[in-house]
C-alpha cells in the first residue's frame, strides 16, 4: 500500500523520474544519466535509483521510503527479455513493472487516442495504436537496428569521414570538421569507435549533420536522405488507414519533422505530454489496487 | 642471434605461425584463433604465443626457445597505434616487429612486383605498390570501416532481417533462414548482436548471403550490390595508371572476384603466395642482421 507511485522514463541519454500522488499530481522530480538496457545492468540500476531518490528528496520525503513505493519504468531496449529479471532484482522498489520506453511515450503523446508515435533520438522506435491495439516497430537498438537514430547517423558520419580520409569519397566541410574533432588522426577516431563509444557518444555527432545539411554539405545530404528513407519506410508500415495523428518525439524530432514525406507531414500533431507524463498515467493504472488500498486505510 | 625467424599472419578469424630458417625454408607451422588487435590484448597474445609454440614443436624444437627467436607479425587492426606497445610487452620473442596484415598479404601476393592487393575476409583492406611506394586504404575495422567485409555484410543481413520481421521490408528465403537460426526470436538475435557477437561471428553469416544471391534472393542481392559498389569505389582509389596486377585474398575473394567491374576483372591475377609466405619474406629482411650474425658464428 502506498500513497505514491514512481514513474521512470529511461532513454538512451538520460533517466528521468517522477514521484506522483494518487491523483497523478507530480510532487517530485529527478534526473540522471542513461538507463538504456544495453549499458551495464549495474549502471542502469544506479541511475534509476539515483533519479528516483532525487524525486523523493525533491518532494521532501526520506529516500529510504523507495522500498515502500511501486515503480513503473519505461526503458529503452527493454524488448530484450532476460535482462528485465536481472534488473528487477537489483532495484529496491515495493513493486517493479517494465515496459518499452515507446509505450510510455505513446501514452504521453496520445493519451488514450488512436494514432502513431515515433521516437527519434539516440535510438528510434515506432508505435501505433489503432482501436486500442498496439503495434511496435523498430527499437531494436544500435548494433543491428535503430535506423535514422542519432547514434546510427553519427556512426555513419564517422564511416563516411574515414572514406573521405582514404580518398574514396570527397572531403566536405562536415567530414573535415569531424576529422578536426579527432585532431585529424583517423586512428584516434577508430580507437574511439572500437573501444569507448556508446550510442549516446555517436548520437552527440548528429546535430553537426543537420547543421551542415542546411549548408548543402554532400555527406550530410546523403546521410539524411538515407535516414529519411528509413523513417518513411517505417512510418508507412505503422500508419494505419484513417490515422490522423502522428507525433514525433526525441531530440531529432523537429529536424526530421521538416523532412518528412507530405503524407506524413499532413498528420503531424503536437504531443499532449512527454514520456514521463505517460509513465505517470500508466503507473496509476498499473498500481490502482495498491493506491486504492492506501485510500481505504 | 638466431638461426630461425617466426612469421605470424594474424587475421580476424585465425592466427597462423611459421618457423623459417635462414634460407626462408618453413620448418614448422602452427595455427590458433583470431589475432585481431581489437579482441582483447590477452587473447591476442595467447593465440600468437600458442601458434608460434606449435610451430616450434612442429619443427622438433623446445618451446622455451621462443625467447631466442625474433618474430615478424602481420596483424589485422594494427593501424591503431597504442595497442602495439601493450602487445609487444606481452610477447616473449627475442625481438618483435609489427605491420598491418595488409603488408604481409601484399608481399605474399605480389612478391616484389607493383600492383594492388585487396583482402576481403572478416575485414577488408586495400594496398597498392607503385614504383615501390605503398598506399593503404581501408582496414579500419568493423565498428566504422571494413565495408564489404564478411563481418559488415553479416551485420547488414541481421539489420535487414529485423526490418523484414517488423514488416518494413518483405521477407525472403534468406531472411527466413536467418530468423530460423535464432529460433524465430528477434530478441535472441538482438541479444547476440549486442552482447556476444564478434566480427568473426557476423562474418560466419556471409556464405549464406552468397548462396542465396545465386538463387535471386532480393535481400542478398541488395546487400551484395552495395558491397560491390563499396569495393569498386575503393579499388578505383588504389588502382594506379598502368596497374596490371590485382590480387584478391581472404575468404570472400572468389565470390567477389566474379562480381567485380570489368576493368578490375581484366587485371585479376592469382596471388604468388599467401600472407604467411609474405610474412616469412619480410621477416628474413627485417632480421637479416641477426640471421647474418648467426651465420658468422
From TrEMBL, chains A, B:
Keywords: Kinase, Transferase. GO terms for molecular function: kinase activity. Pfam families: BcrAD_BadFG. Signal peptide: none annotated. It comes from the Bacteria. Residues 8-257 form the ATPase BadF/BadG/BcrA/BcrD type domain. This is N-acetylglucosamine kinase. It comes from Nitratireductor rhodophyticola.
